Amino acid sequence: MLNLDFSFYNWAMISDFVLKGFYFSLALTLVATLGGIVLGTLLALMRLSGKGFLVWPALVYVNTMRSIPLVMVILWFFLLMPFLIGRPIGAEVSAVVTFIAFEAAYFSEIIRAGIQSIPRGQSFAAQALGMTYAQNMRWVVLPQAFRNMLPVMLTQTIILFQDTSLVYAIGAYDMLKGFETAGKLFGRPVEAYLLAALLYFVICYGLSRLVRRLHQKIAIIR
Amino acid sequence: MNWDWEVFLQDPGGQHATYWQWLLSAWGWTLSVSLLALALALLMGFVIGMLRTLPDRPGWVLFGTGWTELFRNIPLLLQIFLWYHVIPALIPPLKELSGFTLVVLALGFFTSARISEQVYSGIKALPKGQRYAALAMGMTTAQSYRYVLLPCAFRIILPPLVNEMMGIVKNSSVAFAVSVSELTMFALQVQEETARGVEVYLAVTGLYIVSALAINRLMAWVERHVQIPGLQLSGAAGGGH
After folding, report:
1. Which of A76, A155, A193 is nearest residue B85 as measured by Cβ atoms?
2. Partner residue facing B81 (CB), from A169, A193, A204
3. Is A133 helix (H, G, I), strand (E, B) or coil?
């Protein structure tokens, strides 16, 4: 049996190594969620528009993104981005762009399902009141749809937070990397990985409990 | 930009004669990791999912719920590191296991939590009368699961289950982190050696898509063949990648 020694994990170590990575993981999650929802809404509206020149690009984009492993998407963007913008790019910036583009595909599917869960009569009624397409979406369909899909979206955000650890592939400095670096430096990798697992578990489990409670609340209101 | 597909005919100077053959071998590793992990995940997922629905067995229910929450709230990459670096350090006999075996265990247990969630909600989606009717006919709990609950639950959860099966091929890419020589590892190494990143990534991405598509077609066939004519089943919750 191995002797575990957590004594060197004090506040100084955490603020030196882990916090920087934690902030990046958190920022990446938030930016990718917001960007993914905005882009995903656009993609979902394109797919539901019924106009071929809008439906097909969105369909191809979403299905391609969803059938490639996230690690490969991260590698693709890291490889191609310098060609596209004409200069080298940092792993962190590349990760942010990748996650927005990748999550947009997943969020668009959630949003599409949410919009389709609204009875068509709602949309017809809005049209009968003389609303334009934009007004219809803005005031009638999307507010109800977002409420329906909020729990699924939040669950997706928790998965996204876990997936941010995959920026390991291009060497970006996230929370997992922070623990790993500290573990290597102090010669205590076992304890570092255990602590990282504990922290991820507490965050993700806590958030998923909150989502479940929210889900129950919304269900009662409806 | 200029294509250079002949890069796959060059000699990498290792155990493979050409990059082309190395690519095929890497695909083989991806498929082996995925299929073995899938077998483990299906087995454990169904067992754990069933345990969580047992009547009057709070101990087993708690165990099943704990298992599910543990394995789905830690990132897969970190779970692979735990299997690779931490568990052999804590349990010395496991040092004998190869990286391949550890990745199969990690991916299998990770996915088992997600499948158990589907099995759980599939069984919960069945009308309570099904269980009662089975018991009233004199079946034991085991028989009621074997002949009544699981066959119906299986058909309900088949669509999200297929997603999970395709997901396991995608998730196997994380094995690169502990140097299992599967497709993503191939992509990383050969991109560095040949500097033909686009061609290498295209080939690897294509093989991932082909693999997932093959599972999709195979399961569509299974779905058609296990269909019960006239039976309408409502869907259970799925999700995630």
Report:
1. A193
2. A193
3. helix
Rounded (5°) CA angle B41-B47-B51: 140
Q: Is the pLDDT of residue A110 over 80?
A: yes
- B198 in reach of chain A (CB within 8 A): yes
HEC secondary structure over chain B: CCCCHHHHHCCCCCCCCCHHHHHHHHHHHHHHHHHHHHHHHHHHHHHHHHHCCCCCCHHHHHHHHHHHHHHHCCCHHHHHHHHHHHHHHHCHHHHHCCHHHHHHHHHHHHHHHHHHHHHHHHHHCCCHHHHHHHHHCCCCHHHHHHHHHHHHHHHHHHHHHHHHHHHHHHHHHHHHHHCCCCHHHHHHHHHHHHCCHHHHHHHHHHHHHHHHHHHHHHHHHHHHHHCCCCCCCCCCCCCCC
pLDDT at B239 over 70: no
- Joined together, the tokens standing for residue A136 give 């219809």
* Nearest CA-CA partner of A103 in B241, B212, B202: B241
With a cut of 50, say whether residue A84 has pLDDT above it.
yes
Give ipTM to 2 decimals.
Answer: 0.87
Search chain A and give the residue with CA nearest B216.
Answer: A67
* Closest to B77 in 3D by CA, of A31, A169, A93, A97: A169
Query: Using CA of residue B80, residue B84, residue B86, residue B88, what is the dihedral sign?
Result: positive
For the stretch A178-193, pLDDT in tens is: 998 888 888 888 888 9
Residues of A in contact with B204 (CB under 8 A): 72
CA dist., res. B7 & res. B22, Å (int): 12
Can you give the pTM of this predicted structure? 0.89
Q: What percent of chain A has pLDDT over 90?
A: 54
Domains of chain B (ranges; CATH) run: 5-239 (1.10.3720.10)
